[in-house]
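Listing S7. Sequence submitted for prediction.
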Amino acid sequence: MKRFMAGIVTIDKSLYVIAGFVLAFMIVLTFFDVILRNLGHPITGSMELIQYGGSIVFGFSIPYGTLLGAQIIVDILTEKLSPEKKRIVNIVTRCVGILLFLFVAYNFFIYGIEVKRSGERTASFKVPYYPFSFALSLSFLLQSFTVFRDLVQTVKGADNE
């Protein structure tokens, strides 16, 4: 179990690094596109690359953000509860979160299969859509594993909030 939990952390960090590189690429691409657009020579397909890069940045940064506890927590309802009741609420919300993220991952995967079957591609570079759908599916699957890791820590009594 410890190897599984450590593997989740390693994969989350790896995806986060990939997201950082994609974000840096998007920044450089946008910079040059703005300059070249003002000179009358925009970069063909730059908006397409920015859109798909954004999906990777968004999807791949979510699991690590959850691992760090970077999400916004509104605990106005739970702050007055006893520690045991807070723990129960945390366990229930994490279970619901796992189910939600598994549902999203499953639907991105099904969508990716449908898009692959249809052969849809981007307009400028003719890049297939399905790899982005599968990447988001993987990201949300890892998000569910990250929430599961958090659930295990909550059940064990570790206060990670």
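Caption to Listing S7: primary sequence and predicted structure tokens for the chain studied. The radius of gyration is 19 Å. The mean pLDDT is 91.
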